[in-house]
Specification:
heterodimer, A: OB fold (Dihydrolipoamide Acetyltransferase, E2P), 2 domains, extended, B: 248 residues, mainly alpha
Chain lengths: 155, 248
């Protein structure tokens, strides 16, 4: 390769590496702000500010959803399987909101550690399958659970 | 190898080559886009959680994938233009930008339309969506910067630097859902290990991604041909071509 072009090639490589590391360091320094939400474990550790608008995300705890009889108020809890944050929300929930599924709630933490949510978003996962496949998976899962239970009784 | 490389620098050669490629690639692309859409929209099962609304994936994901890949094409053309000062590389770089911007825009709009029924919001400032918006601005920035210069050699130099600096955004977009907590779910198609999308839904999706790559290639070549004719309008070969076609 011509020496002038070789020099320009190095310049191009330097440009890419230098700008990438600069922006990489910036993203690393700002990582707390780039996260869309706090995981419940951070809220439990007191890392999330009280009384300010924040988002908390995690899985909706099975059996935790309680709907009010005479208003749109919903109470539920989100977890990352390490800590649990209770959430109170008044409004309409997205269609995909369900127990055992991901959700992101935006609102303010009160003194009791309850998130007074003004918005709840459903977070869906990366699994896509036809309903029949999902049913077959569910059936085989429960069969395996039965088998495991059967073995447990045998011992 | 170098002779082939230098041939790419010749406008009439590239014009003829792209013409013969387009003659068969263009019909294939149209057929593939129609066939892939019909396959994805009519002949796949609904999703077990999202029902039919997930089908927008057949436009959303291909547009996003090719928008990211197209940026690398633009940046590589930019690098070639900086190192070898090749005019055809300038043209390729400039031709990528509006196509990439259009694909990024399609990905953002379809994502927004998909987000409303599933997540419950049109827009959220999470890492994936924000970095994708930055990609749109980078593409538009290349167009604007190029057009801001009267001197096209200077314009190409400035745009090449901008597109090379912008490459850092591509791995950020790709990994954003793994590095940070985001509302957008992680990738369903995985290069290593099993994909988390059922094969009956995956194959039409991969087919649509290929169709979008073909669409990108067609649009790129058509754009480049128009720019080549524009720039070379005073040369003998373009005049000969015009005489052949129009006879004026």
């Amino acid at each position: 390769m011509h020496p002038v072009r070789k020099q320009r090639l190095w310049l191009v490589l330097f440009l890419v590496v230098f700008s990438s590391s600069a922006i990489g360091l910036m993203a690393y320094a700002l990582r707390g702000n780039i996260n869309l939400f706090y995981p419940p474990v951070d809220v439990a550790a007191g890392l999330a500010p009280v009384g300010q608008n924040i988002r908390v995300g995690g899985m909706v705890v099975d059996g935790s959803v309680q709907r009010s009889d005479n208003s749109l108020e919903v109470r539920f809890a989100v977890t990352d399987y390490e800590a649990v944050v209770p959430v109170v929300y008044t409004g309409i929930l997205p269609d995909l909101f369900d127990e055992g599924q991901g959700a992101v709630a935006a609102g303010k933490l009160d003194e009791n550690g309850v998130l007074q949510a003004s918005e709840v978003l459903a977070k869906h996962d990366e699994n896509y399958m036809p309903p029949e496949v999902a049913e077959a998976l569910e059936a085989s899962k429960s069969r395996m659970a039965e088998q495991a239970a059967g073995q447990g009784y045998g011992q | 190898m170098w002779t082939l490389f230098h041939k790419f620098g010749s406008p009439p050669w590239l014009y003829r080559l792209s013409g013969s490629i387009l003659r068969w690639l263009l019909p294939i692309t149209v057929v593939a886009l129609v066939a892939g859409s019909v396959w994805g929209l009519l002949f796949t099962a609904p999703d077990f959680r999202q029902g039919n609304s997930y089908r927008i994936i057949y436009i959303h994901v291909p547009a996003a994938v090719v928008a990211l890949a197209g940026y690398y094409v633009m940046a590589i053309a930019g690098a070639v233009s900086l190192i070898w000062r090749m005019k055809m590389a300038d043209i390729a770089m400039r031709a990528c930008a509006p196509i990439g911007a259009a694909l990024t825009f399609i990905a953002l709009v379809t994502g927004s339309i998909w987000g409303k029924p599933t997540w419950g919001t049109w827009w959220v400032w999470d890492a994936r969506i924000t970095s994708m918006l930055i990609l749109l601005f980078l593409y538009l920035g290349v167009v604007a910067l190029y057009e801001a210069y009267e001197n096209k050699a200077l314009a190409a130099k400035a745009c090449a630097v901008l597109s090379l600096v912008g490459t850092v955004n591509i791995p950020i977009i790709y990994k954003s859902v793994d590095w940070w907590y985001s509302l957008h779910q992680p990738a369903s198609i995985k290069f290593t290990g099993g994909s988390t999308i059922d094969p009956s839904m995956l194959y039409p999706l991969l087919f649509m991604i290929l169709a979008f790559y073909a669409l990108f290639t067609c649009a790129l070549l058509l754009n480049m041909r128009a720019e080549i004719l524009q720039r070379e309008q005073r040369t003998a070969w373009v005049r000969a071509l015009a005489g052949e076609r129009g006879g004026n």
